Structure prediction request, 604 residues.
Amino acid sequence: MNVALPADPVRYVAKNMRLDLRLIAEMIAPGARVLDIGCGDGALSGHLFRTRGCDARGIEIDMAEVTRAVAHGLPVMQGDADADLAQYPDAAFDYVVLSRTLQAVERPREVLRQMLRIGERAIVSFPNFGHWQVRWQLLWAGRMPMTSVWNRPWHETPNIHPCTIRDFFALCAEEGYRVEKWLAVDDAGQRAPWRRFVGLANLFGEQALFQLRKAAS
Amino acid sequence: MQRGMDQAEPLEIAHAHVAFADGLALDCGVALRRLVVAFRTYGRLNAERSNAILICHALTGDQYVAEPHPVTGKPGWWDMVVGPGRPIDTDRFFVICANVLGGCMGTTGPRSPRDDTDAPNPPRWGTEFPPVTIRDMVRAQKRLIDHLGIARLFAVIGGSMGGMQVLEWAATYPDSVFAAVPIATAADHSAQNIAFNEVGRQAIFADPDWLGGSYWAHGRTPARGLAVARMIAHITYLSEQALTRKFGRRLRGATAAGLFDDTFEVESYLRHQGSSFVRRFDAASYLAITRATDYFDLAADHGGDLAAAFRGSRTRFCLISFSSDWLYPTAESRTIARALNRAAANVSFVEIETDKGHDAFLLDEPDFHRTLAGFLAGCAEHAGLPA
Prediction:
């Protein structure tokens, strides 16, 4: 059933969504409670509610994005992953999503801990700093890499904590997180055949997507 | 003899109301034996009684939200927000607004006759009116909602003191509130808020016509004191930027000689605000209501933990603050948002960028109006309201 929205209605449909968000949506069970950290205009929350009946909410640091999201009827609050996650009670969500934001938070390790405290599962996507173009540019030009994914100069990038797929696996091992699913994709969204080999994924994957859970203690 | 609006004794107008013969028990321990709630409605209640929105008015507001005011003749105070096709769309929603308990637009307050005496012509309560709290105001509204046969309000919306009532509604009657929109408000009054209120109250007490509170009995009004209280409060509703933009240092006339004339435009503006206010408001109500806001402390009412007020709540919240509001700054809304997070409640939180100060919620703020309309549309979808 169609429901009228106020002026300037936007129907978020999967084909308009960022690739990583589409992949994330596929990982989430219908009816789940979801918190999307760094949710931007709330596209994922809207999609999850309308297609999967999820109770999806968002946190976003950029007020203009928050206003846009709420004006489209999406439950989004202005907040900061570093400061606001600590407020939520344990196990308040089935999934906590952090898409393309991990590299921009001040304390990624603490943010991950909070995610797996307040949610049963964490879904994390990040641009892979181990991609061959990044390595090549640093090696040959001796300059900070500029690629389609890493496209801001070093002095103004908000991405203060870049990591590679291998780095992320190492962190999960250190923290005792179980990697339930992972995949690496190129920017066009092709899940390449090398995805089962971490070394190759780390070389050819532009983005990585992980689903984590605390290891059973 | 028919009297024009300007000459009408402003506070003696008949207001649409409902009377509850069983009264109301107040937080202070006093039980009012008779309760009158004056209210206005807009739009139509649907068959399922599921489209009702309660609007809670601010300190000096009243129930005339979206129609000309019976005393001043001015448009409703939220005309821009409430009406057909407006953010709170009366083509879709049934909108209710009641004058608060302690007010002076028809609901029981200091101007009402005392009910603790059997005398045939009881005097008015005046300053003897029992102290009321925000929760008392909400209880009185709940009586009205029950009377209207509405089990669950689709939304409760209000700014400033109205926002306090919204919070209190969500905390006291969580199952009766599907969505809550506290705007430009706080979960308690800061020392600064209380301080400004106290200056206003002292201005009223200092007026020779106050007569120790018995001004009615002598046919007088502490108009100057009340006007000064309004002037002070009005400054807190604006921002420095807004005052500069509207008035700057502009003089009214060519000369700037007078020491006591209203030489600057901003003075003239404030005096006008003060004098027009006293025509529609009562000093004892002003005291009663400012006191209620000062005493408001939702966390203290829940063991010191604001989150406890909302634990288990299924209400969808939308907190809205304004960047230049220094009376109820964004930090206050963030405190509420975080408490709601601790209670795992569903919360949206937006700060609207504006230079208009606290008053922004009453003014033309397109981002605010879009946010409000969008939030309500999203909630309507979740509530399964027909479009």
Notes: Chain A has a mean pLDDT of 88. Chain A touches chain B at residues 2-7, 55, 57, 63, 66-67, 69-79, 84, 87-89, 92 (CB under 8 Å). The helical segments of chain A are 19-27, 43-52, 63-71, 81-84, 108-118, 132-140, 165-175, 198-204.
